[in-house]
Amino acid sequence: MTSTGPEAPFALARYREDDRIRLGLVAGDRIRPLDQDDLGAAGLNDFLAADGWDRLEKLVGADGPWRPLSEVTLTAPVEPRHVLQAGANYRTHVIQLIMAGIAKEDRDVAPEELRTRAERVMDARAASGRAIIFLGLPGCVVGGDEPLVLPAYSDQHDWELELAVVIGKEAYRVTPEAAPAHIAGYTIANDITTRDRVFPGGVGDMGADWFRSKNAPGFLPTGPFLVPARFVDPRDARVVLELNGEVMQDATTAELIYDVPAIVSDASQTTRLYPGDVILTGSPAGNGQHWGRFLKDGDVMTGRISMLGEQVVRCVAAVDS
C-alpha cells in the first residue's frame, strides 16, 4: 500500500478489490473506482487508444466514491501486449558495467584499457543512430503488491530503475517528430537482471542472453501509477533508486543517448506498437554490479522518478519446494 499519489495532478492505477482488479483514478492521497462510463471505453488499453485523459480530469474535483489511497492494494498499472527494452542507453552506466567486468572477455584487461574501450563503444553507439532494443515478457510485469522472489540459481540479481513509456495510439513506422503523439503516459519500471546469466559460459562469443538474465517471474516491477504524458518531461526526469535507504542510482533522463521519441520511433520501425505496450528507456549508472553488492533476502528498493511517485519493491529469497 502507499499513502500518497504521484506529484502529477492525477493518474491511473490498478488495485485489488476482493478477487478482481479494478481501475482507479488517483488524485493526491485519494482514489476512486472507474467504470466503463467513466472511461468512455471498455478497458484500460481502449481508454489509452482513445486518449481519454480530459474525460478523467473532469472527475478529479467531482464528488464520488473517493477513498484513501492507503486503504487499497495497488498492482501494476499496465496490461501490455509487448514489453520492449532499450539497453545501454546511459553512457556512464555502460562504462561502469564494463569497468566492473560484466563481459567475461573483459575480466583480465587493465582498467585504463577497459575505460578507453568502453568510451569507444559508447561513442560508436551514439553515432550509429540506432538504439539497442530487446524484448521482455509481459508476464514478468508485476506491481508492488508482489514481493521480488530472488531465484536460488544465482546470487547476482541486480536492479535497473527506468523511466517506462506507455503507448496510447497505435504506432508503426512513425518518425521521432510524430512519436510523442503516440505516447499515453509514463510509469516506473525496475528491470531486474541476473548478471551471471547475461553472458553464459560454454557457448562461445554468441552475445548476451537477455531471456534468461531478465525474465524470471516478477522481474519487471512496474508502477504503481500511470501518469498522463502531459505531466512528464522525459527530457529531464530525475531517476533515483535507494536500497535500504541508501542512494544507489541518481541521474536524469537528460543523460539518455537516445531520447524517448527516438526510442519509440526506432522500435516502431520493426514492430507495430499497440495501446498499453511498455517501452523501457534504459537505466542510469549505479547498479549493483558497479557497487559490488547484489540483492539479498530482506532488501527494500525504493524508486522515484519525477512526477511518477514512488515504487517500493521488497525482496525475498526463493523457498525450495
TrEMBL record:
Ranges of residues in domain Fumarylacetoacetase-like C-terminal: 85-312
Origin: domain of life: Bacteria
Signal sequence, renumbered to the chain: none
Keyword Metal-binding in record: yes
Keyword terms of this UniProt record: Hydrolase, Metal-binding
Any GO MF annotation of the entry: hydrolase activity
Family stated for the protein in its record: Belongs to the FAH family.
Protein name: Fumarylacetoacetate hydrolase family protein
Gene source species: Microbacterium terregens
